[in-house]
Design brief:
With 296 residues, the chain is an alpha/beta fold. The chain folds into 2 domains: 2-93; 104-295, Rossmann fold, CATH 3.40.50.1820. It is 47% helix and 9% strand. It has 10 helices and 6 strands. The protein has helices spanning 2-26, 31-56, 69-93, 126-134, 155-169, 180-191, 219-223, 229-236, 240-243, 285-295; strands spanning 112-115, 139-141, 174-178, 199-203, 246-251, 269-273. It has a 6-stranded parallel beta sheet with strand order 2-1-3-4-5-6, sandwiched between helices. Helix 4 links the parallel strand 1 (112-115) and strand 2. The longest helix is centred in the N-terminal third of the chain and has 26 residues, at 31-56. The chain is globular, with a radius of gyration of 20 Å.
Length: 296
């Protein structure tokens, strides 16, 4: 469903740009299409800039983690480049281009379950899936739908696929989860004491919520409000033993999860990524290396 929605958005955007070029050609204004494209790109970059500026206000001036302007600009540029690749190409058009990898030789090789975040699908992980397949690592990448459902509704999807991966390999999988996907994985673990999980690598997950929570439609958005009741109840059901198997990556330039330390958890192995924005954090080399290390 999400892929179809994002295809419509992409086709509408490209269609409007094509019309601008056609009008420009008909009226002898060859610059019109390029100007219209530049306006759209500038608007997108400006919207991201507002997110980064708002995020920086969540820091006190004496906070040592407060990002410098140069770090913010690096992160902003990275997200400007990453966003269109994810939301206008990988997710709408390539979400099924990299199928799950469960070869006959998977027995005895620990696998990876990949869980995406809000308004995303399994296409987010395509660069990972190619590398995992090349390395011979069994994997399953899920789709969490409906898009606006409660996070609790995603537990069954995670449960079914994690157990399928365990049956295939004979080993509990590593869970790699981005943003809201980390909360879906935690909700699954809290609901299933026997859940097969070797380690959870949570990437930019709003464990304590975010100021952007509630600014959108859907039960899951409300659950990600800062210090929401749902997040409090989830934390209360977790044990220190389970938390000790979490690795939480957070960034001081996260333009979606802020205050940014909300992506950390007491008792977990919390890792900081410098000048790395929310979506681009998925593709940070240190994150993939940690998953591969966990598999070993």
């Amino acid at each position: 469903m999400l892929a179809r929605i994002q295809k419509l958005i992409a086709f509408a955007l490209f269609g409007v740009i094509a019309v601008a070029f056609a009008i420009g050609a008909r009226r002898g204004l060859p610059w019109l299409g390029f100007t219209f494209t530049a306006v759209i790109a500038t608007g997108y970059a400006a919207a991201l800039g507002i997110e980064f500026a708002w995020m920086r206000t969540s820091y006190s001036r004496d906070d040592p983690a407060r990002p410098r302007l140069t770090q913010l600009l690096r992160a902003w540029a990275a997200e400007v480049l990453t966003g269109p690749q994810v939301f206008l190409w990988r997710q709408p058009f390539r979400s099924r281009s990299e199928p799950d990898h469960l070869p006959a030789t998977a027995t005895g090789r620990r696998g990876v379950l990949l869980v995406h975040g809000y308004f995303c699908n399994r296409g987010l992980w395509n660069p990972w899936l190619r590398k995992l397949r090349h390395a011979g690592v069994p994997f399953i990448a899920v789709n969490l739908e409906p898009v606006a459902a409660s996070i609790d509704a995603y537990r069954e999807v995670v449960d079914v696929e994690a157990r399928r991966l365990e049956r295939t390999t004979g080993l509990a999988p590593v869970i790699a989860a981005h943003s809201m996907g980390g909360l879906a994985a935690r909700a699954w673990l809290a609901a299933h004491p026997d859940a097969p999980m070797h380690r959870l690598v949570a990437i930019a997950t709003p464990h304590s919520g975010t100021r952007l929570g509630g600014r959108g439609r859907g039960a899951n958005i409300s659950q990600m409000q800062l210090d929401s009741d749902w997040l409090g109840q989830l934390a209360a059901r977790e044990t220190a033993t389970v938390r000790a198997r979490f690795v939480c990556f957070w960034g001081h330039c996260d333009n979606i999860v802020f205050p940014t330390r909300g992506a950390t958890l007491p008792g977990a192995d919390n890792r900081h990524l410098e000048a790395t924005p929310h979506v681009a954090m998925v593709y940070h080399a240190d994150v993939f290396k940690e998953v591969m290390r966990s598999l070993a």
